[in-house]
Amino acid sequence: MIRKISIFVAGFLFGFLIDMIPRLSELSLNIYLCREACPSWFREASMITYLAIPIFWGVFAVWAFGRPASKVGNKPKTIALAASLLLIFAITWTAYAYHQQII
User: Fold this and answer.
1) How much is the CA Rg of the chain, to the nearest whole Å?
2) Over the stretch 64-99, which tens digit does the pLDDT of each residue have?
3) How buried is 65 (Cβ within 10 angstroms: 0-12 exposed, 13-18 middle, 19+ buried)?
4) What residues make up the domain containing 45?
5) Fewer beta carbons within 10 angstroms: which end of the chain, N or C?
6) Structural contact between residues 38 and 93, judged by C-beta atoms closer than 8 angstroms
7) What domain count does the chain have?
8) pTM score
9) Where does residue 101 fall: left (phi above 0), alpha (psi -120 to 50 degrees), or beta otherwise?
10) pLDDT tens string 17-71
């Protein structure tokens, strides 16, 4: 049980790191993402996504690594990582585009 909890926490922290991509891109690229200028539906959808990704990665880590001699291959892990990164990059680009009034 302790092993599964620690794996969940590690997955949760990994999901939190993925959530930090928009902020890190703001700081490193010296760009600004919309805060108040974004539509309310976009702010709500991004907040739900930012809350869901760490929880997803915590549960996914327990599923993928929590069982003894786990037989989960690399394909589900790669797909989950690619989907998470694609979602975060889409949110980041959309926030940047709203700030620059591209869309």
Assistant:
1) 16
2) 887 766 676 778 888 999 999 999 999 999 988 888
3) middle
4) 2-99
5) N
6) no
7) 1
8) 0.83
9) left
10) 999 988 888 889 888 888 777 888 988 998 999 999 999 999 999 888 877 666 7
